[in-house]
Amino acid sequence: MPKSLFRRITKKFFIITNIILAVLFLLGCYGGWFNPKYFWPLGLLTLASFYLLGLLLLFVLFWLFVKARWSLISVITILLAYKPITTIIPFRFSTGFAKQKQDSNLRIMSWNVEHFDILEHKTHPEKKQQMLDLIKDFQPDIATFQEMVGSDNVAKAINYIPDIMEQAVFTDYNYSYNPKLDFDGQHHFGIITFSKYPIINKKTMSYYPNDYNSIFQYTDIVKGADTFRVFNIHLQSLKFTVTNLEYIEKPTITDDEDLKKSRSLISKLKKGFLKRKIQSERIKEEMDKSPYPVIVCGDFNDVPNSYAYNTIGKGIQNAFAEKGSGIGRTYSGISPTLRIDNIFLDYKFEVKQFTRISKKLSDHFPVITDAAIIK
């Protein structure tokens, strides 16, 4: 084959590949605009968008050495996706986080506490105390926990809630769970909101099949002359098995067994996208009914350019996007890009600072923000 023909074919191959990556990247960045009921495969692209961005940047470098003008494919694509990119990775350096909170500010923590160490309590009882020490160290005014295993009626229980309140210096709480799906004879499994300020109203919303992910709560809290409504949510988890996780680490399609693993993984991802669609719309409906400014905290089990994130986040601000930096990973497993835990606030709040605490006491990292009510 003549060299000139080979070069033309190779050049066309790279151009077409670059264009395909650009289209997939844009679909991933804006996948949250599309209803998962009809476009659920776009959810896969939202998960992959960070990696697609990396490939586009590699193409920019490649074309600069080969034919600079073709780098415009990637550059224009990245510019078209500027807004969702800054939601995924804010273009700012870390500003630090002052532990000493100003009295006028409200400090909010959200943390998937992964059963609050009850499964390891006999072998590692110090871990629970380390979790409590972390909470006390940062002194949140409001703390929302997901996957909370606790007891509100058995004083001898390992995670007796009044004991946790006393150690963490909270004055009230709102605990939501389905008693028919309790963790054991003494403990419940649910979501909980702690507060240092008076709680004037508590409500648990539960929908069929009334399992853990179909329950969410809101809590009306009063600080001085201001009242706000705090939502605590945990959207549908993917329920990956050990086999699923192993396949994610080393994906292959070489035999029928690998094909089954791939189908199982995609089936769980699809189910998650569809369930989180329904859950996020129910939560948004309740948010819109609130007579008070809202704060939404929780484990979304989805990335910032997803349908669930966009649905709940419409019309309000994300604390990480406002004051965070870097990738902001909140889940310690599977991928280094999973920022799936969020704190959203009404625009009647000004976000002052934000931090993610990278101590591995749970499979999630806690996130904290300070906010001031705009007068």
Short description:
By secondary structure, the chain is an alpha+beta fold. The protein is built from eleven helices and twelve strands.
Architecture overview:
This protein folds into 2 domains: 86 residues, no CATH class; 268 residues, Endonuclease/exonuclease/phosphatase (Deoxyribonuclease I, Chain A, 4-Layer Sandwich). A hairpin with a 2-residue loop joins strand 6 and strand 7. Helix 1 packs antiparallel against helix 3, helix 1 runs parallel beside helix 4 and helix 9 packs parallel to helix 10. Helices cover 39% and strands 22% of the residues. The protein has 375 residues and is an alpha+beta fold. About 5% of the residues have low confidence. The strands form 2 sheets. The protein has a 6-stranded mixed sheet. A 6-stranded mixed sheet has the order 5-6-7-8-10-9.
Summarize the helices and strands and which ones pair or pack:
Elements: H1 3-29, H2 36-39, H3 42-66, H4 72-80, H5 82-88, E1 106-112, H6 125-138, E2 142-150, H7 161-168, E3 172-177, E4 188-195, E5 199-206, E6 215-223, E7 226-234, H8 242-249, H9 256-289, E8 294-299, H10 307-313, E9 317-318, H11 319-323, E10 341-345, E11 349-356, E12 367-373
Parallel strand pairs: 1-2, 7-8
Antiparallel strand pairs: 1-12, 2-4, 3-4, 5-6, 6-7, 8-10, 9-10, 11-12
Helix pairs in contact: 1-3, 1-4, 3-4, 9-10
The topology string of helices and strands comes to HHHHHEHEHEEEEEHHEHEHEEE
- Mean pLDDT, nearest integer? 89
What global shape is seen? elongated
The level 1 CATH classification of the largest domain is: Alpha Beta
Point out poorly predicted stretches: 240-256
Would you give the CATH topology of the largest domain?
A: Deoxyribonuclease I, Chain A
CATH hierarchy: architecture of the largest domain: 4-Layer Sandwich
Query: How many domains would you count in the coordinates?
Result: 2
